[in-house]
Amino acid sequence: MQKGAVEALPKLTKRSPTVEAARRATGNGGFGSFDRVLRTAPSSFPAGYRRVAAVFEVRCPDLIPGDRWQLAVDDGQRFLARWGRQAYDLGWTPSDLFGLHKPPAQAHPSYRRLSRYDETGLVSLLQGRKVVALTETTATIQNPAGAITIYRRHHKPAFGPVGDSLDDLAPPFGGNDV
Known about the structure:
The protein is mainly alpha-helical. The chain has one domain (17-101, 115-157). Helix content is 34%, strand content 8%. It has six helices and three strands, in the order H-H-H-H-H-H-E-E-E. The chain has helices at residues 17-26, 34-38, 47-58, 66-89, 94-98, 122-126; strands at 130-134, 138-142, 148-152. A three-stranded antiparallel β-sheet has the order 1-2-3, with helices on one face. Strand 1 and strand 2 form a beta hairpin. Helix 3 packs antiparallel against helix 4 (66-89). The N and C termini lie far apart (62 Å).
């Protein structure tokens, strides 16, 4: 390889068995009913997440690249298998895990649904990384290089100019209340 050359990453082409099973169950590859989909979700997942996880696996949501969605499906299965019971017991909602920003009716060509960190659930942000700790309010994510990322379940500010949030007006931590 030449100095400075970067190898192209392989495209994700593998589909999880649950996605394939759901497509066969509907006959036309589309969504048939919640009952058919529910049977494809692993029964080991907490009941509170099982239906949402199964629906998430059936079809790529609008305005999400297919490879990112497939990675999120795999991440969701891995997360629920390892952390599902604890997340449920700690009060993490399906939206906290699988939530996505509702796209505008007329999305601009540059719109990226996953760029709305403030409205995106944990699973869609993992991108193959593993959760190594979970609390009531945070998930600790291990990056491949060893760095740690803290995902906050609440208080995820949207990116924008200072002053577009009431939180910008609060006194600094440890400051005097007015």
